[in-house]
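pasting for the record
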Amino acid sequence: MSTLNATQDPYVWLEETTSDRALAWVEETNAPTLATLKGDPRYQTLYDEAFAIASSQDRIAWPSFRKGELYNFWTDAQNLRGLWRKTTLDSYRSGKPEWTTILDIDALGNAEGKSWVYKGVNCLEPEERLCMLSLSDGGKDAVTVREFDIATRSFVDGGFMIPEGKNQISWEDADSLLVGTDFAGDGSDLTESGYPMVVKRLKRGQAMADATEVFRGEKSDVAAAGSVMRDHEGHTLTVFSRAIDFFHTTYHVETPRGLLPLALPQQSEVRGLMANRLIMKLSEDWTANGTAFPSGSVLSIDREALLADPANLKPTLVWQPGPSQAYEAMASTRDRLLISGLDNVRGKIWAFAPKADGGWTQQAIDLPDNQTLSLISADEDSNRFFISAAGFLNPNQLILADAETGKSEVLRTMPAMFDSTGLVVEQKFATSSDGTKIPYFLVHREDVPMNGTTPTILYGYGGFEVSMTPSYSAQAGKLWLENGGAWVLANIRGGGEFGPAWHQSVLGTKRQLAFDDFAAVGEDLIASGLTSPKHLGIMGGSNGGLLTGVEMTQRPDLWNAVSIQVPLLDMIRLSKIGAGASWQGEYGFVNEDPDAMAFWLERSPYHALKPGVDYPVPFITTSTADDRTHPSHARKFAARMAELNLPFYYFENTEGGHAAGADPKQDAQYWALQYTYMLRQLKGAAEGE
């Protein structure tokens, strides 16, 4: 059979996640891959190294502020599913903190006969004693949410409980929640993407069926949600949103006159409330009240004026990105707004203090330069905040900073997890098909021979305005760099490294430019003499799995290893699989737009496979519990390869969801399999095989 057309899908039955037939296929397809890769003499060493990293007691216990104490979630060899625990700042600062366990997830799972995975908490401010705690069975996105009392360290008897689903929850007060879920249990309250379409007010002691509807979206939306925002001065603002697609959202605000439209541009994000002002981030140019604000900016709007006239807003500029800068995230302390961003893919953090006239004053903070800086937690009762600083060869540091004084101190430095002696990092640029310069980072041995023989992994993502930044990957360092490999991180278009325009330039049928960017980096690596197609492999997950799937089918001449992780590969049935309908704003509406259909029918990896082509042998990985991209993308691609007598490796973990695994053992197995595959493909068989 030649390439598939839009109506052909001989493997649609593999979309039945847990049918007997599908699971039998998974078991049969996993078996030869596990036998080969686990049979490689290098596998066990790689597994032991990966597990030692994942369960190391020397990892940083990343803390979060909560009412004068520090909270942390911790996994190790004895606590595979983890401990939610707390300590004090003084105890943490001592280097040997005394932890109090709040909840033992392993013990809870054992007692309840569930494979519970902790997915976070949503606590009622300002006391933050009562929390809605999310638990996933096996690592799925869908969670069961139960009310938990931190003071008693127990679930509240007869408290709020939201059944399993892709739930959206916000506290109104101690006795009421705004809830988005599948209330009827038949999907009627969900969008086509599988997320909440209806928001209801649920009172304490009230049955789910008796909750009162307060907001409704459309079936074609991605999701509807309600959020009660609070600042540190006791002001509140209730905002409802309709995500029309992944990047366009409409907002309504609760006012004394009822629910009214909020006149924000659709490509904007409401981020919170501070100093009686709504904080928002723009992803499109916006002119309001006679003032033009560029895309990528952060703005504030006076809450009182907003409630009085939500149709005529008067925003104030907080921060505007420079030509090489991009917004990443924000948080707030007691009276400072923190914004983290990038400047030529290097981390920056800025602090802003609200002025009485409605403006903002920027505050300098003493932080490391030339590293990736990430906001970890901000204290709402002081101006202290935690950040992480790291680089490819710089182990993570935990830094405690003060947004008022601008001073900072290093509280923890993770010990080196791999030998970086003789390794160097370079930032280089490749030229894409339209002449755009594409930055990439290259980690390699300083004395590397430039004769095309270096085993090299090129990693990419390129979507959803997600930035790829330098990070300290102990797994890549120990399992790959120590084995003589080189590591490359590509900052292709589609990401957020240079703001919304960098992302929006490759949406929909413009996506080929992102694929060209990635191929251009590969060609640049080969032209430099570092590596060659025989020794060059690529790796990516989720949208990055689509990227590597396309690169395998479009440019089989460039690579000898292709790692396709939790991927999107069937771009024709995308909207009908998993949460795929929610991403049509990124990829195009294939079933409504003939141009989008034509574009993806040519590039959809599942449809682009052809008999008789000398493709690199890929390693396709997924999870049965992945209810986001859905395992059928990987399954169908592998089944099609088998039909065409094309060789491949395949591994589907039963748990883990849209992640490598559900605990350190599963994580270690996953990465040992990945790097065993890469070594076999790019370096050759082990001695004695």
